Amino acid sequence: TAWEFRTGARDNLLSLGWFSFPSFYFALLSLGQLIFGRTTEAIRIVSAFAGALTIPALYALAREMLSRPAAFAAAAWLAAFHVHVFFSRLAYNNVFDGLLLVLAAGGLWRGWQSGERRAFLIAGLTLGLSQFFYTTGRLTPILLALWMALLVLHRRPDHAHLAGLASMLLAGAAVFLPLG
For 11, 60, 80, 156, which has the most beta carbons within 10 A of its beta carbon? Predict the structure, then answer.
């Protein structure tokens, strides 16, 4: 499917590709094929980047939520976790689930703590984008909804928080709706 983007046989990012997966992931794989040709390395490089980016994203989230030593421990554990390393080196679209969940959770946490609209928008954009990869990405909205419920129980939201949450949901919907 990725090679079809290179040859021009496919050009719709919102269609379905192999095994009924959204074709956006295959379009990303085709970028690796643009550089390395039709090779195994070309399709694995995208997952390797996603897996590698998950480590500093987790560090940033844990540092924001907990502390620098906890963030270092979390990032070091993920970098050495055999399941993460394994799936980050294969051409599987599920490796994006971890990255996008951490980015969405980080945006939600930062937005909730600081009231920054930009953080809520990052959470919404990554929430919507998480639907373009593996089917387990469908759990991201559920996990964030549960976390939002816990945050609301802990501290009643004010007008800025409600506006931020609304912008997060609207941004997520704007990204997801063309696929939906």
Answer: 60
